[in-house]
Amino acid sequence: MQKIGILYHPKVRATLRMAKELEAFIASRGITVWLCSAWERDEARGLLDGTDLVLTVGGDGTILRAAQTVIPGMTPIAGINLGRLGFMAELDADQALEMLPALLEKKGWIDERSMLQAEITGPNGKHHVYHALNDVVVARGAIARVIRIDIDVDGQHLSTYRADGVVVATATGSTGYAMAAGGPIMYPQSPDMLIVPVASHLSSLSPVVLPGAAVVKLSISTFRLATISVDGHINLSLSSRDVVTVKRSQYKTR
């Protein structure tokens, strides 16, 4: 490997200390290395060119931010867990320096995970596209009142939820918010997607697993602002008649 990047969680002091230890270790082997906060996506993207591997120091949230940073490229990510759960991290902090030489010698493996693409369109002409490794959540805003979400799959009406929200998750995201809302756990490499309502009122429809080629359209009806959350850290307001179209992304996280 010729160039390695390190992304760390800027709000946890221990991550920066660990990141600097990794930086010194990698530089001592004659490899170019750069260091950046995982919250500074534009700055990190400016450093990515030619990067062979991105190390993240933090928890799963830091890996999710790294996935956003890397696309549209294919740079692989290896997580070093200094967070709480670390479901997606390969290494714990106390074994990182011991195992790092094997990674530098390419003795690991590549695990590819499907992503989602979420396209937001509104009657006012707004148009935004985002990509998610975990999930796309359409939910109520600050006021605790249910919203109405009409869901179409491949042009056919599936259901109307009056709920706190709806989670559309990848297999990777099935162990996160979707699981907490009562959804099943999916095989990690599955290309399928999952629809899980959150606190749905008077609806008997269970969580639904859809094939990876499906296109899901969520139409919002509410007197108050709703929200969309992409991987938990891209958060935007939605209004009545806004539509969120979710499908499998052309990108993958490696």
Please provide a written account of the structure:
The chain has a six-stranded antiparallel sheet, covered by helices on one side. Strands 13-12-11-8-15-16 form a six-stranded antiparallel sheet, with no helix packed on it. The chain has a five-stranded parallel sheet with strand order 2-1-3-4-5, sandwiched between helices. The protein has helices spanning 13-27, 41-45, 60-70, 96-104, 177-180; strands at 3-8, 32-37, 53-58, 77-81, 91-92, 113-121, 127-132, 135-140, 147-153, 156-163, 165-169, 193-198, 208-210, 215-221, 226-230, 234-238, 243-253. The model has no long low-confidence stretch (mean pLDDT 91). It is of the alpha+beta class.
Summarize the structure.
The protein has 254 residues and is an alpha+beta fold. It is built from 5 helices and 17 strands.
Task: Describe this protein with a few key phrases.
254 residues; alpha+beta; 6-stranded antiparallel sheet; 5 helices; 17 strands; 17% helix
Summarize the topology.
Layout: E1 3-8, H1 13-27, E2 32-37, H2 41-45, E3 53-58, H3 60-70, E4 77-81, E5 91-92, H4 96-104, E6 113-121, E7 127-132, E8 135-140, E9 147-153, E10 156-163, E11 165-169, H5 177-180, E12 193-198, E13 208-210, E14 215-221, E15 226-230, E16 234-238, E17 243-253
Parallel strand pairs: 1-2, 1-3, 3-4, 4-5
Antiparallel strand pairs: 6-7, 6-17, 8-11, 8-15, 9-10, 9-14, 11-12, 12-13, 14-17, 15-16
